[in-house]
Structure formats: structure tokens, C-alpha cells
Amino acid sequence: MKSFISLLTLLLLCVTSAPSLATEKTELVVYSARNEQLIKPIFEAYTKETGIKIRYITDKAGPLLQRLKAEGAHTKADLLITVDAGNLWHAANEGLLEPLNSEVLTTNVPSALRDPENRWFGLSKRCRTIVYSTERVDPSSLSTYEALGEAQWHDRLLLRTSKKVYNQSLVAMLIAEHGEPAAETIVRSWVDNLAAAPFSNDTKTMEAILAGQGDVAVINTYYFGRLQQKNPELKLALFWPNQQGSGVHINVSGAGVVKGSNNKQEATRFLEWLSSPKAQNLFADANLEYPVNPKVQPHAQVAAWGTFKGSDINLGKAGELQSSAIMLMDRAGYR
Ligand code: FE
Description:
335 residues, D-Maltodextrin-Binding Protein, domain 2, globular
């Protein structure tokens, strides 16, 4: 009888421990605000290398954050991937992300591009920089974001809507650097120089320069890259502003491990892999972005845009000051 019981105990131990080990190893669930066509090849590469399957859903950042909040501790999600530091900051601020203690991540991701409490990590960089008409603008007349408010750009500046988080992050970083009153003066001077009402997206903003509606604009580098791929003779060029001062405004797409995840170790390992040299080009190049890992070279088309100094103010400020930025833009009449 005694040996029967110990045999039974042994059997029970086997059935309870074996399957959990097996499932733990084989699947991760990702909620992603980054487009499916950009993430799917990366997930497939990871599965091929490790055998770990990745299930995912994609949606805009807002609905994904709402969903994570509603699911709380019962969520099936292990990892959240989203664009813009403002969104990542909100996820962390809502308590949806787990602080990670990973030397791999803190080595691979520069400190300005990750949460000071290590709840989110940038995985690819995009610059929100100046683009100009090569037919009507001498680049030597350009210098800084602030100087786009000078009289020489009157009726020549084009901007995307202030409703877009990219511009909210840009203005939040201006507040971080200059303080609110000075940042408001800058935004007002931009509004005074607008040649047309703000556009709904970066591509339309650049197309308006090509159509002669204006001469300079502020856009994300990868949208410029997409236009350039369609038309290598594009009459537009990028300019890197603020090189004597704070540097180009950088933003990221990035990720964090979800607080309710049952599989934090595997999720962290996947995040570490995403920041590693072998995955960084897969992650960044598909969208013509810059790798965050300083050891990794960007795609040749991106590298051809030249080198620049980027801002090293921590991107968490983009989230922290987002509501101030929204109110400031409203006061300044930036629609
Ligand atoms: Fe975008």
C-alpha cells in the first residue's frame, strides 16, 4: 500500500509538472500596435530559432491599452509592442508593464530610449526631423526646429495635425528642454508661419511640398524613406536640426513585458533577443528605421541620409509632458 501511494505521488508529480514545462516553452502572446507586416517576419524568425510559437493580435495603441487594463491579472498577453514613447509611457504609468532587471536590455538599449524604471525599452528609432524642397530651399538657411518660426519661413512651413502623438511627443520634448512659456512661443511662431492647414499624415505633408504648397516641414524619417523608394529622384531632402545644441528629436517603437503575464521569463528573453544585433536589423529595416542598439548599422538607404546627433533627453518626458503639450498646442492655435 505504501509503495502504491508513493508511486501514485510520483505519477501525480509527473502529470502536474511535465505539461506546465512543455507549455511554458512553446508559446508567447504579443499585443502589438506595430503593423502585422512588420512584426510577422520577426516572430517567424524567433520561432525558427527557439521553437517558441508567438500568437499575436494587432490594433491601435489606445484599444490595446484599454484591453490590457480590462483584462488585468487575467490577461493572456506576455508582451506589448507599440510605437511612440508617449504610448509606452502611458502603458507603464497605468501599471500595465513589469519592471525588468536585465543587463542585456540595459546594455543593448541606450538609457535615453528606455524607461528609467526599465518597464519599457525602445527597439527601433525614428527621427522627427526637418524635410525641405531641394528646388526652393538652400539647406544653409536651416538650423533648428525653433528657427522654423523665423520670418524667412513665413507662409512656407507645413505641419501634420497636432492630434498625432508624434507631434505631441515633439512638443513635449520642447517643453522638457525649454520650459513651457518658451516652448509655447516656439509653437506659436510655427503656427504663424503655416502655409496651409495641418495635414492628416506625414506623407501628405511631404506631397504638399512637392505640389508647391510650402517649402519645409517636420516629418518622421521612415515616411521620407517610403517616398524615396517610390521615387529615387524625389525633390526633397532631410535636414538634421539642432546639431549645435540638443540634437534631433528621436522617438521609438518599443516594448515591455505585460504585468499579468504568466511567462515573464520567456517574454524577457524574447525582448532581449529583439534588442540583440541579429534581430535589430530585422526589426528596424522593415520600416526604414534606425536600430537602437549602437552596435548595429542601419539599412543602406537609411545610412545614406547621413549621421547626426540625436537628443539624449529621456523619452519618458514625451509621456510625462504629453498632456501639457496637448494643452499648449491648443492655446497656440496649432490644430
Ligand atoms: Fe508612423
